[in-house]
Amino acid sequence: MDVIHITNHEGRSSPHPAVVTIGNFDGVHLGHQALIGRVVAEAGRMGVASALLTFHPHPQTIIRGEAPPMITTSAMRLRLFEQLGLDAAYFIPFTREFSKITPAAFVNSYLFTHFQIRKLMIGYDFHFGRGRSGSAEVLEQLSKDHGFDFEVFPEVTLDGAKVSSSAIRAALGALDFETARAFLGRPFSILEKVSLGQRRGRTLGFPTINQEAEDPLPIPFGVYASQAIVKDNTAGERTLAGVSNYGIRPTVGGTSPVLETHLFDFERDLYGELVEVIPLRRLREERKFASLEELTRQIGLDCDQARAFHGDTAFHGEAC
């Protein structure tokens, strides 16, 4: 899959014929998957490329000054897009200027400069542009004016409930991992590169992998029984049991959220590698301890509790 970051309006000298969809696609949930699957299928039927346009940062970051917590990291979105069979993913920088663009200007300045659009498909609730004026009705008229097909994909429901990113964020905020998993079609997880931390966990006897997500995670601060999927030179991938802390680490004066995971019975250096961490159950809230000694004792208790959780759920190297 090609990944293209659009930096201007000039586009390709010879745009590719394509079926295109546009949206935020945070979570790449069952609804997104169904829409993207339809795009890929239509592109195959027409013998053209399948492409997706999305935005970075999340539009609410610019419009309201604060984005909702992101369900999927950028790395996870790209992995899922590729798994779904897309030929290309395009990222448009969402700026204050871009937020004021009219639907007609967007079609002319972005879509026509990068594609020979054969068909445009959007989700039922997609709007964009100045005052959210880029509605399905407006895009349908533009499709008639410019001679490309247009389709609105209907909402997807599960057991009568609408599948949406906001519903998944609400579930994760309430620590309802079962509902989140049902709407996502997979366990909620964080895919991010392992960064070089201060190695404080190693000195305390509990080495961790540290991951700093680009955006806040949609789960509350706290300690979680977790799993991590890591690359293995012989087995391809391994799923490991562990315990994770997501928070600011107040005992050591931290201020920025970090995901730290201690993997049981594993010692290989993972710095710089992409690792997928799956929080399974929150064991306790994050809190500030009076000393490193008190923190160390609590980490030991957290590990015992996480090991018991993994044992109770019959951990066999698969997501519980």
Task: Explain this structure.
- The longest helix has 21 residues, at 292-312.
- Strand 11 and strand 12 (236-247) form a beta hairpin.
- Residues 314-320 have low confidence and may be disordered.
- The chain is elongated and about 70 Å long.
- With 320 residues, the chain is an alpha/beta fold.
- Helix 6 packs antiparallel against helix 7 (177-184).
- It is built from 9 helices and 14 strands.
- The protein has helices at residues 30-46, 59-63, 74-83, 103-114, 136-146, 165-173, 177-184, 200-203, 292-312, and strands spanning 2-5, 16-22, 49-56, 88-93, 115-123, 149-153, 157-158, 161-162, 190-193, 209-211, 222-232, 236-247, 258-263, 274-284.
- The chain folds into 2 domains: 2-158, Rossmann fold, CATH 3.40.50.620; 189-312, Elongation Factor Tu (Ef-tu), domain 3 (Beta Barrel), CATH 2.40.30.30.
- A 6-stranded parallel sheet has the order 1-4-3-2-5-6, with helices on both faces. The protein has a 6-stranded antiparallel sheet with strand order 9-14-11-12-13-10.
Q: With helices defined by DSSP (H or I, 4 residues minimum), what is the helix count?
A: 9
CATH superfamily of the largest domain: HUPs
What structural category arises from helix and sheet content?
A: alpha/beta
Distance between the termini: 30 Å
Widest sheet, order of strands: 1-4-3-2-5-6
The fraction of residues in strands falls at 25-35%
Helix residue percentage: 25-40%
The CATH first-level class of the largest domain comes to Alpha Beta
Apparent shape: elongated
Give a count of the beta strands, DSSP E runs of length 2 or more: 14
Rounded radius of gyration (Å) = 22 Å
Q: Tally the structural domains.
A: 2
Main sheet properties: 6 strands, parallel
Task: Determine the mean pLDDT.
Answer: 90
